[in-house]
Amino acid sequence: HQRWMFAGVRLAADGALIEETGAHDAFRQDMIDGLSRRVKALPPKWFYDAEGSRLFEEITRLPEYYPTRQEAALLRRVAPKWAGRFGPDAVLVELGSGASEKTRIVLDAARDLAAYVPIDISASALNEAAERICADYPGLKVLPVVGDFEHLSPPPREAGQGRRIGFFPGSTIGNLMPEAAIALLRSAREVLGEGSLFILGVDLVKSPEVLVAAYDDAQGVTAAFNRNLLVRANRDLGMDFEPEAFDHVALWNPEHSRMEMHLKATRPMTVRLGKLAFRFNAGETVHTESSRKFDEASVKVLAQAAGWGLEAFEVGPDPAVGLALLVA
Ligand code: AVJ
Known about the structure:
Bound molecules: N,N,N-trimethyl-histidine
Organism: Brevundimonas bullata
Protein name: Dimethylhistidine N-methyltransferase
Largest sheet: 8 strands, mixed
Strand content: 25-35%
Structural class: alpha/beta
């Protein structure tokens, strides 16, 4: 089968995609900016190196982490219905494709897709997923793009002229601040074009006990995922964090309708990045992720603010997640 690569990507000797050019510098700059703030914070996209992507896949199989399972079940129910609207030679563009496991539900429901464009920040996860999809769906053009879905470019020409179907499952949109989420959906509408569809997965507001358990599991996998950001900073940026000196904190923020993850310094310390030094007081936190929780009304507001219409909204069984079908 055919695969295409894109500019801005480094290649290994075997032709595998390695990483987005400039990712290292961007990580370094985000680290400096984030640790210089009065309230320290880092963007969650840096969780997803090879180990972070592996840990996230492990999270999706935890008993407490319901969103992946619940969304897959709901997608199995609605995909056949929604795929009926794709039309001939449609192109599925997935934002933050990771292991591309849920993609299979859509690919199975829409056997006449022309191309699949998975976009992911983790080159290792993207390569492995693209190889597996290539092997299992002969005849489907797989056009992987290593990169940050906040900087979308139009699908490659090889994808053809069929209707564009955006696919953004997993409530990853919840990681973005409201303005950034609107900006992303607006740019997706521009890039995918008139007449396109967009399948958006969102986690729904529910009892704080269920939410907190999902982000603070008994086995400590989510804690390891959170701390891996520091492990990665040590390896990629030569920093000297002591990951074990930080506690994993997961809390529900009702004012902003979001789960938050933080890393909390258990004692005073100084962390270095080259010649720079960052001071932590005992108990000081780094805010590493916000995961917004929605309802139908807040999804509608978000979609419409970005120029999309909310065509359908489906809610699964408890603990419930939602799937929205947007039309350009
Ligand atoms: C991949 C962004 C959807 O926010 O639930 C899982 C990441 N963080 N456990 C989420 C995550 C902690 C996840 N998303």
